[in-house]
Amino acid sequence: MGMHCASCAVRIERVLARRPGVRSIEVNFATQHAELTYEPGAFDLGEAGAALDKLGYQIKPVSQEAEAQADAEHGRVQRDWLRRVRLSLPLAAIVVVLVYGFPSGKIAPPPALQTSGAAGSFHPTREAGAAGEEN
Length: 135
Hints:
Layout: H1 6-17, E1 22-28, E2 33-38, H2 45-55, H3 64-100
Antiparallel strand pairs: 1-2
């Protein structure tokens, strides 16, 4: 059974801190891990495990190999995140220019499509012989 709230982490800290030989204990609720510093001759891991079993928790020691593997995974995730940021920043800059870089948020048409009439307006007309008319 895992920790459900921050008070669970505090309870685990209190129980382990009272054990003989414990120098320091830090329990992180977010990561579901605890870091315990103890004196090897004075601390009994079995007794600490039994005390936590009464509360409904278990001690699972982490090997150095598992810790190295977790560090490697963290590094991979961090590199992937940086790659995504490097890709998205130029795209975000383009969006900002498109939204804020033009007056009134409108993009001016290319010069070939601009008209010289009053305020750029035009009036469509129908030519003789257009679709729908008979000759």
